[in-house]
Amino acid sequence: MENSLKFLAILVTFAIQVQLFSCASSRYFAEGRQIALPDSAKVKTTLSVSQQDAKEKLSAVLFAVPNKRYRFEFSGTFGLGAASILWKKDEGWRIVLPQNERYMEGTGDCVFVPIYGGVDIHKFAALFFGQRVNSLACEGSAMQNLTLEYVDNTALAFSGTDSLRLEIKNIETGAKWKSGVWNLNVPDKYVRVDVQ
């Protein structure tokens, strides 16, 4: 009996140490943390968006082959699709907004995000990997001047009463997907919005 209690105590101590280690290692935005980008990854986050009096909480998933392809899926209440973003290095980008039946397309690394303006896709994706960035703006873009702050697993970008809070839930490196993840089809009835 005494040996069983000692063994149980050792197991509990080990479990607590593993839990403490996993909590400490998940501080994605810890200052000075060096990050090597994975070959591929699937990242789950939550986003809280506030604009004036409107607030919305979104679930977000990033499928990434860094610097080559990014696919962001944003869903709101009850898992309803709020937005999809696909960026491919040699093909450009597309944003689909199913609730509004709208879409936008463009080329280059600067993706137009309604409300915020031009966002550098690599800097935005870097946030999902827990990398600190000084700005989300593209060079020469008319993006709002956002202030960025970081605490543990959370990045906060804000300007006045508008804010975006990103909290990393899980980063799965070495992820594999079906080829369909790199296609973002637009239904015929959707209206194209010109990017300014």
What does this entry look like structurally?
Helices cover 16% and strands 42% of the residues. A hairpin with a 2-residue loop joins strand 1 (41-51) and strand 2 (54-65). It contains two helices and twelve strands; from the N terminus they run αββββββββαββββ. The protein has helices at residues 2-25, 121-128; strands at 41-51, 54-65, 69-75, 81-88, 92-97, 102-106, 110-113, 117-120, 147-151, 154-159, 162-173, 191-192. The strands form two sheets. It has a ten-stranded mixed beta sheet with strand order 9-10-11-1-2-3-4-5-6-12, with helices on one face. It has a two-stranded antiparallel ribbon with strand order 7-8. The model is unreliable at 1-25 (pLDDT under 50). The protein has a domain at 41-176: outer membrane lipoprotein receptor (LolB), chain A (Clam), CATH 2.50.20. It has 196 residues and is α+β, with helices and mostly antiparallel strands.
How much of the sequence is in beta strands?
35-45%
SSE-based structural type: alpha+beta
Specify Rg, calculated over alpha carbons: 20 Å
Report the major sheet.
10 strands, mixed
CATH class descriptor name of the domain at 41-176: Mainly Beta
Tally of individual helices = 2
Average pLDDT taken over every residue? 82
Helix content, binned percent: 10-25%
Distance between the termini: 75 Å
User: What is the H level of CATH, i.e. the homologous superfamily of the domain at 41-176?
Assistant: Lipoprotein localisation LolA/LolB/LppX
Question: Any low-confidence stretches, pLDDT <50, length ≥5?
Answer: 1-25
Strand count: 12
What order do the SSEs take from the amino end to the carboxyl end, as H and E?
HEEEEEEEEHEEEE
CATH topology of the domain at 41-176: outer membrane lipoprotein receptor (LolB), chain A
Strand order, biggest sheet? 9-10-11-1-2-3-4-5-6-12
What is the second-level CATH architecture of the domain at 41-176?
Answer: Clam
Characterize the overall form. globular
